[in-house]
Amino acid sequence: MPQPGAATVRSRVRIPLTFPDGYRADAEVSTFHGLTDGAEHLALALGTVPEGGTPLVRLHSECLTGDVFGSDRCDCGPQLRESVERISEAGGYLLYLRQEGRGIGLYNKLDAYALQDSGLDTYDANTALGLPEDGRDYTAAAQMLAALDATGIDLLSNNPDKAAQLADLGIVVRHRVPTGVHLSASNVRYLRAKVERTGHSIELSRLVG
């Protein structure tokens, strides 16, 4: 894969974060010039990386329904909350990527939900709409990490594709660290599809028969 061009940090601003359960964290939020897809992605610096340590990094794709409205149809909101705490403890970055619906957009994601209600899984619903199963490209994420001098990372993710894409783009993923399992009655089929279709490292077998 060709290496992306350089991006630069456009601005930095400190934002105190408070989650619905009362958890608080301080983030330094960076914006960027020169991202290849032109989207307004953000990097949240959390905690302090120990001297000689490796930053813990989460690539979190925007999910309005899960992150903001608390939808139980996915595990995005709980993963966001967990990631902020774990990165704050270890030191590193949460990249908040504007890739709603695995890159298909909000309206298409809601259309895919309607197809899932008729029995399709999350991937087949996308393809039934003539869209990719997963349309995300992490070139901009690699540019952001390079601009932050974070070219060697531990990746907080269950998704092997994220690690593979970053490695192809020149980011050294030293370890891939799985998130917790955020199971609800509404997202069992969604999580099972991620395990069975795209090899996500989610330990569902010990929780779901």
Automatic annotation (TrEMBL):
Function comment: Catalyzes the conversion of GTP to 2,5-diamino-6-ribosylamino-4(3H)-pyrimidinone 5'-phosphate (DARP), formate and pyrophosphate.
Superkingdom, taxonomy of origin: Bacteria
Reported cofactor(s): Zn(2+)
Top-level EC class as recorded in UniProt: hydrolase
Pathway: Cofactor biosynthesis; riboflavin biosynthesis; 5-amino-6-(D-ribitylamino)uracil from GTP: step 1/4
UniProt entry tagged with the keyword RNA-binding: no
The UniProt record lists the keyword Repeat: no
Family to which this protein belongs: Belongs to the GTP cyclohydrolase II family.
EC identifiers of the protein: 3.5.4.25
Source organism of this protein record: Kitasatospora xanthocidica
Any one GO biological process: riboflavin biosynthetic process
Positions annotated as active site in the UniProt record: D134 (proton acceptor), R136 (nucleophile)
Short name of any one Pfam family annotated for the protein: GTP_cyclohydro2
Domain GTP cyclohydrolase II: 20-178
Binding site for GTP: R58, L59, H60, S61, E62, Q79, E100, G101, R102, T122, S157, K162
Binding site for Zn(2+): C63, C74, C76
One MF term in the entry's GO annotations: zinc ion binding
Enzymatic reactions: GTP + 4 H2O = 2,5-diamino-6-hydroxy-4-(5-phosphoribosylamino)-pyrimidine + formate + 2 phosphate + 3 H(+)
A single Gene Ontology CC term: cytosol
NCBIfam families in alphabetical order: PRK00393.1
Cofactor comment text: Binds 1 zinc ion per subunit.
Name of this chain's protein: GTP cyclohydrolase-2
Keywords in alphabetical order: GTP-binding, Hydrolase, Metal-binding, Nucleotide-binding, Riboflavin biosynthesis, Zinc
